[in-house]
Design a protein that fits this description.
Shape: rod-shaped
Oligomer: single chain
Number of domains: 1
Strand content: under 5%
Structural class: mainly alpha
Number of helices: 2
Length: about 120
């Protein structure tokens, strides 16, 4: 009877260790994926800010140039503002689905890799 109890206690301890190690592995995987995701998100934010700054300067230059052509600076700014407003409306109508679909694909690729389907119990 003592040997069976010892085997059971050893099995229990190994099962506990296995669960603990799987939990640690899961936490490490989540931390890794979140850090990679946050790093990429930060890079995209910097890129978008730089692009928006460039667009701002280009639109100011366009507005000033159009203002000179039309004889009054405010006309150039009205045309440039209207062009930006038109781009924003088009982006709102079309871009929402594109951004949502690409974000879903990005997070699925980030959290579900090919190795997730290969379950290896270690036996």
């Amino acid at each position: 009877m003592g040997r069976g109890l010892d085997d059971f206690l050893e099995l229990r301890d190994e099962a506990y260790d296995w669960v603990r190690l799987r939990w640690a592995n899961l936490r490490l995987g989540v931390v890794e994926k979140l850090s990679v995701g946050m790093g990429k998100a930060f890079g995209w934010v910097i890129f978008i800010l730089l692009v928006l700054s460039a667009i701002t300067f280009l639109m100011i230059a366009l507005a000033l140039w159009l203002g000179e052509l039309l004889g009054h600076t405010s006309y150039g700014f009205l045309i440039a503002g209207g062009a930006l407003l038109l781009c924003a409306v088009i982006g709102l109508l079309v871009g929402g689905r594109l951004v949502t679909n690409s974000m879903v694909r990005y997070f699925v690729d980030m959290f579900f890799t090919e190795n997730d389907n290969d379950y290896d119990p270690g036996v």
